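Why do we bother with holo predictions? Because pocket geometry can differ from the apo form. Keep that in mind while you read this record for zinc ion.
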Amino acid sequence: MKDCTPYNMAFACFECCKSFKREFVLTDGVPLELKCPECAGPSYNFGRHFKAPKKSDARQWKKVRFLFDHGFRFQKIRIGSGDKDTVAYPETMDQAKKFVIEYKAYAREYD
Ligand SMILES: [Zn+2]
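The structure, written out:
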């Protein structure tokens, strides 16, 4: 049976330092990129687990961008078989720098 459950996906624009949500039915396919409603530039799909920093929090946005550039879009990283065996995303840029090395194998290629 086709799964028609709609999911909210977060899209983030690095120009505006903003995110917005769109609803998708996963089986219909979900775009990796959408036009930002504010600047019409690219905004990127960060999936269902993304919590956007405040617009004014440049440091946090820099960290998000850094993770993004390394193939991490807040996808769940499972290191075990249980539902709880997921890795928490880094809080700071310093943690993020270690994180992208440690979990390199989980980085995704988007193109
Ligand atoms: Zn924008």
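Residues 6 and 25 are 4 Å apart (CA to CA).
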